[in-house]
């Protein structure tokens, strides 16, 4: 894409009303726009990151047989009323214009809707198991939304729901989702810790969270130094300096961001919506369910929290809005032909031909401005063309300090396209 | 996809609480689920159709330089208040849990948000023109939502906004969007009539609608039999039996479904949000805007209204959830090897290998049930394998009556893959 055409611009300073690094960098670099506290627009660069994350998540959900669908945001009052969640604090209520009392809640989560829906299609044990997911907007009335995309009042989530004949089959699938989740986070550049946690408003069982260890995280977890065991402070029976119950390893307290969670729901929602199946003996049993979430916008924020320096964002290649930032520095456009070198425009076109995603800074701006912007936006590879580089290209990876001078062919090789 | 794995099922009868053909067929065939009046879930088959439409729309919007983004559904009261639209009847209001009066409206349209947002980035004439779009959920508090996906209380829309220095540049882009819209509708199988209309709550100018002529349409338009001129009854100065003002052709009254609209907004929103640019002389001028909508879910409904028969939906290939419905009829799985023919499973795998999207009905069900379901679901090509077909495949196009017996190689040729 031509940067001169991009309607957003970077800002010289950080926004004054944001505390969290993710919001400070994403707003300043033109990835997001704050509409109100906890409510953001995804601008073209930010939306590209979201699309990258969504593509990764879709691949992993499809790979485990998840069927994609899309449920509404307007939830008739009957849904949350059936499970006693209508009056949960964080639920936004919607007026229908006629009644003084709210008629709908806004999609906070979708267990109720998908359970009712499943009861239309599930009758026999032969209809089980299956799983379905969506990538959709969720709403949560946070009293103090101050962590940027980490805790929004409106945010994007992938939620998967699974349906089983018994706990054993749920356990089997639970482990499959666990692996798929590790794949998602790994591909997004996040090392997640599988953490035992409480069920909150969702279930009375223990659940599991995927926690990214990060100083700005709102969660506190206890992680064993020896084995893979971790648990959330909320349910922890361990003291900060204690020992792991599994292996006697030393326990470390860490701040962490919850990027995903998986909940064994049991029959809580099946009972509320009469979701039952007939088994081989003709007996009716409640369907056993699981629910599995990944905060897509929160994941984007977590990547920024983990990958930035004082100059800007340092996107992992897998989720960067573009792979390459091509900069034409002042004077370069004057005479590429005379200098016998490829013009930046030609490099831009040739890279696109072989499928490389390039943001080409073709603006009339100073070298300093372009270089500062490139660091702030944080694409993985920076290519500079200027009179100084002759018929070569100056290449710098955003996450390394060294710059190299390369031929176009060497650049192609480096990019691996 | 294996039909035995699809969690939805077709129903034997039409839903009792739906009047519109689109909802009757889509619900019965398992494409959508009604959560409340005008509020639907898109089930796996229905979601695939939406994704096909979204892909077409994206391609056409990207081709004219539209920059994709995503704005929120929660709109702070300040937005609609600034343009006097807070009290428009169809706007849903949201309570924030603290104040007795609503603090937000739900996204009915996004002119206000994008205008404020643009004012952060547009300063000079050099920042113009540009256009940005999103594909996002809209809400509209319809008092009587009874037309299925044609008029929902929650629906999916593509909305594009454009920003210009003057009316002349807006006019230039307006024509470009017009052509892109014709492309979208044509690719989706819809012949749209470009119709002069009023601006409603959006603008005081005349606007244009893209109308699909269809008996169940809620709009009445007057179409010239001779030239391309058409106008909506709401603004018409023509009588039903009159003559076209452009060419004296005879005027015909038609019922039609509005599948898209384009609005020249002028400076209405720019004035409200102080969106101005400095021209070459250093003078400040309001930015001139346009807005352009396509109802994605309504388009899906329109396709169903236009393409169905008494047996079910007849999807155009471009938007069908799968291209091929492969049916294995009773007995077929017993001995494909003995009969020296390709098993249905092998045909399924081989078609997928060459990129054909196939729904494979591998269920243990009667021939009658499978054939009835295939007609109801309405995929473009039906392939039947049974002991009767020997080492050949019985092929029928959903929109033709004749069946043909073909070899696998001939089928591949027919499918054009």
Q: Mind explaining what this structure looks like?
A:
The structure is a homodimer of 417-residue chains. Chain A is α+β, with helices and mostly antiparallel strands and 417 residues long. Chain A folds into two domains: 21-309, Bira Bifunctional Protein, Domain 2 (BirA Bifunctional Protein, domain 2, 2-Layer Sandwich); 322-415, Rossmann fold (3-Layer(aba) Sandwich). The first copy, chain A, is 27% helix and 29% strand. Chain A contains ten helices and 23 strands. Chain A has helices at residues 21-28, 44-63, 77-82, 111-121, 167-187, 268-272, 296-306, 344-353, 367-377, 408-415, and strands at 32-36, 39-42, 67-68, 74-76, 93-95, 104-106, 130-139, 154-164, 192-197, 207-213, 219-224, 230-232, 251-266, 276-278, 284-286, 288-295, 308-309, 312-313, 324-328, 358-361, 381-385, 393-397, 403-406. In chain A, the strands form six sheets. In chain A, strands 3, 7, 8, 9, 10, 11, 12, 13 and 16 form a nine-stranded mixed sheet that branches. In chain A, strands 20-19-21-22-23 form a five-stranded mixed sheet, sandwiched between helices. In chain A, α1 (21-28) crosses α7 (296-306), α2 (44-63) packs antiparallel against α5 and α2 (44-63) crosses α7. The longest helix of chain A has 21 residues, at 167-187. Chain A starts with 20 loop residues before the first helix and ends with a helix. The model of chain A has no long low-confidence stretch (mean pLDDT 94). At the A-B interface, β1, β2, α2, β3 and β4 of A face β1, β2, α2, β3 and β4 of B. β5 (93-95) of chain A pairs antiparallel with β5 (93-95) of chain B, so a sheet runs across the interface.
């Amino acid at each position: 894409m031509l940067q001169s055409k991009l309607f957003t611009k970077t800002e010289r300073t950080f926004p004054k009303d944001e505390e969290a690094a993710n919001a400070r960098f994403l707003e300043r670099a033109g990835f997001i726009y704050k509409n109100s506290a906890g409510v953001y627009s995804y601008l073209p660069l930010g939306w590209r990151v979201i699309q990258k994350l969504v593509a990764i998540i879709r691949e992993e959900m499809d790979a485990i047989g998840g069927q994609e669908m899309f449920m509404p945001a307007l939830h008739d009052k009957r849904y949350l009323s059936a499970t006693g969640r209508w009056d949960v604090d964080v639920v936004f209520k919607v007026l229908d214009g006629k009644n003084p009392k709210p008629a709908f809640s806004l999609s906070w989560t979708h267990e109720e809707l998908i359970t009712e829906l499943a009861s239309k299609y599930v009758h026999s044990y032969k209809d089980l198991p299956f799983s379905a997911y969506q990538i959709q907007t969720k709403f949560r009335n946070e009293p103090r939304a101050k962590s940027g995309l980490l805790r929004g009042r409106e945010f994007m989530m992938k939620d998967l729901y699974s349906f089983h004949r018994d706990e054993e089959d749920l356990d089997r699938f639970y482990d499959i989702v666990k692996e798929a989740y590790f794949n998602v986070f790994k591909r997004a550049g996040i090392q997640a810790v599988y953490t035992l946690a409480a069920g909150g408003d969702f279930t009375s069982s223990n659940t599991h969270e995927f926690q990214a260890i990060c100083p700005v995280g709102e969660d506190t977890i206890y992680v064993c130094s020896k084995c893979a065991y971790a648990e959330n402070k909320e349910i922890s029976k361990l003291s900060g300096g204690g020992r792991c119950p599994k292996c006697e390893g030393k326990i470390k307290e860490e701040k962490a961001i919850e990027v995903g969670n998986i909940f064994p729901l049991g029959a809580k929602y099946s009972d509320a919506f009469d979701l039952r199946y007939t088994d081989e003996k003709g007996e009716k049993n409640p369907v056993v369910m699981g629910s599995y979430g990944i905060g897509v916008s929160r994941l984007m924020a977590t990547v920024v929290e983990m990958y930035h320096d004082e100059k800007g964002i340092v996107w992992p290649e897998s989720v960067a809005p573009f792979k390459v930032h091509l900069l034409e520095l002042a004077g370069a456009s004057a005479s590429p032909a005379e200098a016998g070198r490829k013009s930046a425009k030609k490099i831009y076109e040739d890279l696109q031909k072989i499928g490389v995603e390039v943001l080409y800074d073709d603006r009339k701006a100073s070298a300093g401005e372009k270089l500062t912007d490139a660091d702030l936006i944080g694409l993985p590879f920076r290519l500079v063309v200027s009179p100084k580089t002759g018929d070569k290209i100056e290449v710098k990876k955003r996450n390394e300090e060294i710059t190299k001078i390369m031929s176009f062919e060497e650049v192609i090789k480096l990019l691996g396209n």
